[in-house]
Write a structure and sequence with these properties.
Length: about 260
């Protein structure tokens, strides 16, 4: 039976719809999904939510958060059907974690600045991982630069880090030299990786999120190149027919051109 408009505005209504889709008379596609088969959709919806945040469009963010919530509830539904865990377990787990890691709110601890809260949070996480290797629990599915910085932060808290930012600069310069000297494809692949890892380390010292910095640059490059393409269309020209000097001049001209809506 189709849910009422009132039901469709509630969390229980959403759960009922998903249970129906997974049920005997439900959707053939939804009914065969598993935790594993839904992995790419969870990643896609999380990425689209990030794009919505960057867009600054509340309506788009609202829609994408709904799509992301759908993925969460689908996984809960599958887990309940398999007898793995239920919604109450998910909610209880995250609520207990929030209370446990906010002793300055729910206990007697003190943390008066955001930095102090982060330090306390990490200390508590480290206590929870007591006896486990320092890099335990870092998702290998993180984007590479974020993965690198997550590892670097973790080992730094364990005491393995440079003493001064100048050392991070030196390490990067050393890796660039080794990259220039690499001769085989395998050596170049390895040295590019080392250089990127060293750059991520320097970014951490400079308090820069390497993943977001590169993503921002990519967005800027996309916008600028689209302006170049628009100028080429207006001029009736092709990049392949231009000299490098002409391309560079056009690029500089595009930098000063207004953004196209």
């Amino acid at each position: 039976m189709k849910p009422t408009k009132r039901e469709m505005r509630t969390f229980n209504g959403l759960r009922k719809v998903i249970a129906t889709l997974r049920g005997p008379d439900g959707c053939p596609w939804d009914g065969v999904q598993t935790h594993q088969s839904l992995r790419p959709y969870l990643l896609e919806e999380a990425s689209e939510t990030l794009e919505a945040i960057d867009s600054g469009d509340p309506a788009q963010l609202c829609e994408e958060l709904g799509d992301l919530l759908l993925e969460v509830v689908l996984h809960v539904q599958i887990a309940e059907e398999n007898g793995e865990f239920g919604l109450a377990d998910v909610v209880n787990g995250v609520t207990e974690k929030l209370v446990r890691r906010h002793p300055h709110v729910f206990g007697d601890a003190t943390a008066e600045t955001p930095a102090a809260v982060v330090e306390q949070w990490e200390d508590l996480k480290r206590e929870e991982r007591s006896g486990q290797p320092a890099l335990t629990g870092i998702p290998v599915t993180l984007p590479s630069l974020a993965y690198a910085q997550a590892m670097q932060r973790r080992v730094a808290r364990a005491g393995f880090t440079w003493e001064r930012v100048e050392q991070a600069w030196d390490a990067l310069e050393e890796e660039i030299v080794e990259l220039r000297e690499a001769e085989t494809s395998e050596e170049r692949r390895e040295e590019v990786g080392d250089a990127l890892f060293a750059l991520a380390s320097l970014a951490r010292w400079l308090e820069v999120d390497a993943e977001e910095a590169l993503r921002s640059t990519c967005r800027g490059f996309q916008d600028l190149f689209q302006r170049v393409e628009a100028m080429l269309r207006e001029q009736g020209r092709e990049l392949t027919e231009m000299t490098m000097a002409e391309k560079l001049a056009l690029w500089e001209e595009a930098k000063g051109a207004p953004r196209r809506q």
